[in-house]
Specification:
This protein is mainly alpha-helical. The protein has helices at residues 4-24, 32-52, 60-83. It contains three helices and no strands.
Length: 87
């Protein structure tokens, strides 16, 4: 079980990512705006899954299924994004 200090550190990093995400809304980045926000959201999701949902301490089979789920979602999103320019 991670210590309280680890959870406080993760919470502070999540707050920093939230602040960066809010600051990005004030910048004119053009098409990079959405990409940067997606990267920040993915980083936040990874931290929540790894620490708050205790994936770090789980068995190998659970890590395998979590990785498979992420790969499946990436494939599904890539199909959707590949179809979008043709419309």
């Amino acid at each position: 079980m991670p210590s309280r200090l680890a959870f406080v550190g993760v919470w502070l990093v999540l707050l920093a990512l939230l602040g960066i995400s809010m600051a990005v809304t004030l910048l004119e980045l053009g098409p990079w705006h959405a990409a940067l926000n997606m990267i920040l959201a993915a980083a936040s999701a990874v931290l929540v899954v790894w620490f708050d949902m205790h994936l770090r301490e789980s068995s190998g089979i659970l890590k395998l299924f979590a990785t498979g789920t992420i790969i499946f979602l990436l494939i599904m999103f890539s199909f959707g994004l590949a179809d979008w320019p043709t419309r």
